[in-house]
Each structure stands twice: as structure tokens, then as C-alpha cells.
Amino acid sequence: MAGAGKPGLPRRRDPDLAGLAAFTLGPQGQVTSWPVTAERLFGHLEKDVIGRDVRDVLMTGPGQRELMAQALAEVAEGRIWTTTVAGGRLGAGRFAIRCEPLAVVPSGALVIIQRAWPQPGPSWMSEAAARIGSTLDLAQTASEIVNVAVPGFADAAVIYVAERLLVADDFTSPPAGSGVAVRRLAACLAGLDSAATDSLLRPSEILVFGPDSLHSRAMATCQPVLLDPLDKETAARLGSRPAGAELMSRYSAFLAMPLIARGMVVGCAMFARAPTSHTFGSGDITLAAELASRAAVCIDNARLYDRERRTTVALQQGLLPARPQVPAGMEVAHRYLPVGDSVVGGDWYDIVPLSGGRAALIVGDAMGHGPEAAAVMVQLRTAAHTLADLELPPEEVLRRLDRMAAGIAAAPFATCIYTVIDPSRGQCVAAQAGHLPPVLVQPDGAVRMLHLPPGLPLGLGAESFQATEVSLPRGATLALYTDGLVESRTRTLDRGMAALRDALSSGLAGPGAALGKVCDVVTRDLRDHGEDDITLVLARIRP
Which of 25, 60, 103, 108 could share a disulfide with 88, CB 3.0–4.6 Å? Predict the structure, then answer.
């Protein structure tokens, strides 16, 4: 029968697919239990192991006996001990070992051993590639790389990126004989948790490596650099830190790999192995080169994304109005939500203080969304702000904006509402250019639409705009908005306006409703159906 052993011989044991085994030791290291998982992982039968010193059974590689003595001493003091080793009678590959104190008398140790990876090869690389680049976050990508490398490939891994590439988007490989400034993105050290690792090798720390360091040599030559022991400059740098000397003593072989993406050296990956692990061989360098190649592309993708994100944020900060200056007699809250993944679009709002404690409130919407609409929007918003400073009547401001918009080839039209609020008189003067009418909410929550002469959108050259004076009692709230808040392909304008009136009535009913909170609630509730930029401005004369 398939799988049956011959009479009189022990049945063949298949390898443990989980690669995990747990067994116990006595205080002196003798094996006290050896379950079937250990038999499967290491190929030793229980009857051949019980009572023997684990250092004679498994830990027979260079330095492993001393390592196990250290583990037993740590466990005897009640501490957990971990490491990663290779060689000896453990079998092919690298193994993560964890020793925990046993709560028995006499005390012993629970040993958990797991194969960190299969022997490095094609399967290792394919799994490593699948774990790298899950996001476009630069720090997260670097963390994924070092966590792939440790403990499967090395006992320590550190990722550096060229600092000039991050801050200036300009970098060429450093010439031989020159140093390089880098930023440490992530590190992983076998046997240390992330907090302890980060305290020794701080993320985002900027370092300048001299020309003789293995980092500079790897980046200048675009070739791997293998050292045993560590170069003097890097050793001195690490030795000057708290616990740095102890850290260096844990490793005996070092490998630096340049990170090259799109023909450009973007950084350097540093790998290290402990004396209890095999030194780096030619096969390891080939694997490290393939890992570095994949890692470099992922890091550069994350870097480019980060650059675009920072550029867009800077653009947004320049396009959106600065913190408005609201007159003492008024309260104003506003929210702007661009559509989709855009951070800027065609909507704009502005608040311009005027003489006598008055203020101009402006909301506009250039056709479209995204960068093209934003380019038109910023011109109209700047012009509107300048005209408001001149304290021109609302209808005259819209006439001049209309003439300006007609001269912008990229702006077929835009809508706008321009209002001037006078807290001392409890009045508002408003004019529209094809924009949706404002909504007035009384202190008791009663809502009414203000029916103003609609006017035509800006850019059509009509110049026929009329201003209307409206009473604005103390405690009443005026709402200005863009059509993205109330209209979409799945919701008619009438239904959207009704939803807006209900949301404002509910949020502003009763005295003292916080305008900022109402803005948040209204935009959140109505945005679910939106397919365009959303702007909402709420203004109230203080009671």
C-alpha cells in the first residue's frame, strides 16, 4: 500500500508543512518532551531524543552551543529569548527560535522553532515579491522590504534612500571617492521588536556616509559590496551610540546592495548575518541583487507618488483661500470637498472684510473639476477678491468678472454668487450669475429659498446682473453652496434642494447651533450622491 513502511522499520515521516515545532527543555538543556511536530520537522524520533542535551541534537553549528547556553541563562532569569540561526543539524534553511520560561519547578524552557523561509530560491523570491509594494507609502514600502529580508535572508536589514532624491528630485550616482547623504527609511533586526530597533536605528534619520563606507561604495560603483568585518567608519558611527557596540557584536558578515530603478541609484540596502548563520555566498548575492532590484522599483514608485502628493498639497494650499478674516459681528463656517481623488477643482469661496464691520461672501463654480478647472478658478477668485477690496456693489463686481471670464479661452462659463453682509443693519445684499439661490434658515429652523434675479453665468458677456437686499435677522443663517452638493446623475435638483433644506433645518434648529458641526453633517449626508466638487458656506450675524 502506498505510504506504508516495511515491517520492522520505522515509518517514513513526511516533512512538517507548517515548518513549526515546539518542545521543552530542562534547566540544563536536556530535552524533556518531543512531540510529533518536532519529529516531522527535524526527523528525530522521540525515543532517540528524550533526555539528551539539545546542543547535541540540533544546535551543533558554529557558535550555536554558546548561543543555546545564553538562551538557557536568559530563561533562568525569567526572560524570553529569540534569535535566528542556520546550519547545524536543524536542516536546510534558516530557523527562528524562541525560548520562554516554564512556570514549573524545577524551571525549564519552552522552545518554539519555525522555519523562517524555505532554502532561499525561486519560491522565496516569488513570495518576497508578493509582499513588497502593497502600498505607495514610502516608509511602509521600506518596512515591507526589511521584513521580507529578516529572518528569511539575513539577521538584519536596513533600507536607505538618497536624501537629495527626496528633497530635490535630482540625483546622480555619487562618483567614486565621494560620500553620500542618505535617509534611513526602515530597519529590522532579528530578535528585537520594532520599538527597540527604531531606538537604535531611527527611521527618517539623515546620515552622511564617507567615501570608504560600504554604503557609498555600493552606490558609487552600482555593485554589491561584501565586508567581513564592518568598515571602520560605519563601525565607529554605530559604536558611538548607546548599545551600539553590543549591536555590532551580533553580526559578522555585511552585504550592501545598491538600489537601482530606471537607471538611477535611488538608495542602498544593507544586510547582515550573525556568526551562527552562514556567511554570504555567491548565491546569496544573486538573490540579494534580485530582491534589491524589485525593492528599488517599489521604493521609486512610492517616492514618485510622494512627490506628486506633496506637489498637489502645495498646489492646493496655494489655490484655496487662506484662513478668512471674519468680522467680529459674524460667524462663518465653510467646507470644500473636491470630487474623487482630486484635491483641487473649479469651486471656490472667499470671505473679504469690508469697512464698517461688513464682509463680502463669495462662492463660485468654474465648469468642470480637476487641475483645468482649478486653473480657471484661481483667476476668477483672485479677481473677485481684488474687486471686493474696492468695495464695488455686488452687481458691478459680477459685471467685471463676466468681462474677464469671457477673455479666458479655457473657461466657457462659471457661476457665482456675491453677497455683502452688514451685521449692524441686519441686512444682506446679494447678486447671482447663473448660480443656485442662497438658503436662509431662521433661528427656529424655518427654511426659505431666497429668490434672486438669477442672471447668466460668467463668461457669456451678458453683464445683466441685479442686486437684491434681504433682511438677515440676528441668529438667522445664510447658506451659500455649489451644485455639487445638491445635484447628481442619480438625484434631481429638486430632490437635492429638498434634502439640503431638511438638513439645514434639522442642524440649525434652536439657538447656538455650531456652524462648523452643521457644515460637517450636511456635506457628509449629501456627499454620498455627489459627483462634483462640493462647497458650503454658512454665515450668521451673532445674536
Answer: 60
Quote the CA–CA distance of 58 and 90 in Å, as a whole number: 5
| Number of domains the chain contains | 3
Nearest-CA neighbor of 83 among 326, 220, 296, 274? 274
**Environment class of residue 52 by beta-carbon count within 10 Å: exposed (0-12), middle (13-18) or buried (19+)?**
middle
* pTM of the shown model: 0.50
Domain that holds residue 171: 122-311
What share of the chain in percent tops pLDDT 70?
84
Backbone torsion region of residue 179, taken as left when φ is above 0, otherwise alpha when ψ lies between -120 and 50, otherwise beta = beta
For residue 430, the tally of other CB atoms under 10 A from its CB is 26
pLDDT band for position 418 (cuts 50, 70, 90): very high
b/e burial code for range 495-511 (CB count within 10 A of at least 16 → b)? ebbebbbebbbebbeee
Query: What is d(CA 481, CA 55) in angstroms, rounded to the nearest whole number?
Result: 76
Q: Quick: pLDDT tens for 427-484.
A: 999 999 999 999 999 888 889 999 899 899 998 877 789 999 999 988 899 999 998 8
At 98, which amino acid appears? R
